[in-house]
Design a protein that fits this description.
single chain; 134 residues; disordered N terminus; Nucleotidyltransferase, domain 5; 6-stranded mixed β-sheet; alpha/beta; CobE/GbiG C-terminal domain-containing protein; membrane; transmembrane; 5 helices
C-alpha cells in the first residue's frame, strides 16, 4: 500500500483472529479489554491486517463497536515492533512483528501513540488498545 495515508485516532483497537471469527465474540472481547483499560470503544478506529478484505467478520465487529474500520499494511506494523508489550515467537517468525494486534493498535492510533495494556486474547481471538498522542 505505497502512499497510504497515515491513520491517527484518539483510540485504536487492533483486532485479529483465526479465519471465520465470530464478530460478536470479537466485539465482546474488545469491550472487555476497553473496560479493563477504563476507556470506551465507540468512536475508535478498529484496525485489522491488510489482506483480510474478504473477511467481513472484522468489519462486522467494528460495526458492533460503533468504530470505524481500517486495514493496515504489515510494513506499518513492523515500524512499531520495538514498542510492543508482548511477543509471540510464532507471530514474529510469520510476520516479523511480535504481536500483530498490539502493532495494529499502535499503527491505528498514529505516531506517538501508546498501548494501554498488553494484548487481550482467547484461543481464537486477540485485541489490543492504543491511545493516540494528545
Amino acid at each position: 500500500m505505497a502512499g497510504a495515508k497515515a491513520v491517527t485516532a484518539r483510540l485504536a483497537i487492533g483486532v485479529g483472529g483465526r479465519r471465520g471469527v465470530d464478530p460478536i465474540a470479537l466485539a465482546a472481547l474488545a469491550r472487555e479489554a476497553a473496560a479493563r483499560c477504563g476507556v470506551v470503544v465507540e468512536g475508535a478506529v478498529c484496525a485489522a491486517l491488510a489482506g483480510r478484505e474478504d473477511e467481513a467478520e472484522f468489519r462486522a465487529a467494528s460495526g458492533l463497536l460503533s468504530a470505524s474500520f481500517v486495514l493496515l499494511p504489515l510494513e506499518a506494523l513492523r515500524k512499531r515492533d520495538a514498542e510492543l508489550l508482548t511477543r509471540s515467537p510464532l507471530v514474529a517468525a510469520m510476520f516479523g512483528v511480535g504481536s500483530l494486534v498490539e502493532a495494529l493498535a499502535l499503527a491505528g492510533a498514529g505516531e506517538g501513540s501508546r498501548l494501554l495494556a498488553p494484548r487481550f486474547s482467547t484461543d481464537r481471538l486477540a485485541c489490543a488498545i492504543a491511545e493516540g498522542a494528545a
